[in-house]
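FORM 7B: Structural annotation worksheet

SECTION A. Query
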Amino acid sequence: MRDPSAPARPAGPGAGRAAEPESAPLRWGVLGVADIAVRQVVPAMQKSPRARMEAIASRDLAKAQAAARSLAIPRAHGSYEALLADPGVEAVYVPLPNHLHVPWAIRAAEAGKHVLCEKPLGMNAAEVRGLLAARDRAGVVVAEAFMVRAHPQWLRVRELVRGGRIGELRLVHGHFSYNRRDPDDIRSRVEWGGGVLLDIGCYPVTLARWLYGAEPLEVAAVLDRDPELAVDRFVSALLRFPSGQAAITVAGQTAHFQRMQILGTAGRIEVEIPFNPPPDHSARILVDDGRDVSGAGVEVMRFDPVNQFTLQGERFWEAVRRGAAVPVTVEDALGNMAVLDALFRAAETGGWVAPRA
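SECTION B. Predicted structure
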């Protein structure tokens, strides 16, 4: 049954296809052989009966064939265009470098394919507006692949915040870092959307916006660039929301660490592994009533091991087959991109900047 809160999809190229049975798995094509696709996302989605990987493409046919063999995918294509023309593909997963996200997501939508695109959805908000228009013309489902927003630990956190467990939300603090400096890595290319703010800063930003249920009024940032590669490597950001704040730090050349704290007037929630919880280990959040700093008022909530990439694929299936809302819509992605744009501008100007979604 269609989710009445989900926006109706307009008529377009995707609307004219013969409807699949509601229980049928979604037939996927993968646009590229990026590590995140072949090592994490595709194997995870293959664990679900709601996904069937039909084809994978690379501009190097041999690479596509090797990936298809290793993942037991029936068809390999030597070009992205060939995959988009494949009649056996209903939905396309786009794990390409950041600067190729919107151009190929638009081409996929225009080919009548539903699109799940890696984060960040675009290089800037203007690009995402173009994809939003293409989605509406084509009448297909398009979503940003923030898998964290399908994970049970985050659904529970949001439920606790909305239910008043920690009082009124006042501060969200997030940190995400890793240590990698490789000139050959796509994340080291400024012109390809490299740097830590787009790569990992987008995570605490989307979660802060999601928890507040609002857009920040203005943002400030301090940004440090690698002297040789020119990509941003350390970023500290402040977001001022109508009812509170978010403080975010991200780094690409420090120790690997991640944590999020959500603080309200009557308690706090700590998410131990907020972004990459291992799929074979249980996840934990700590809910503290704030009675003292020793943790006497802490309740530990555990979640059974899940693969958030599998869950992300199933949520996308529900959107296509049943008309449910995707976890992260293009409109939501546009809001996130506007904040990231504003953070770059704030770092350049040294002042507070209002996002322009």
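SECTION C. Observations
The CA atoms of residues 91 and 257 lie 34 Å apart. The two ends are 31 Å apart (CA to CA).

SECTION D. Sign-off
Analyst initials: ____
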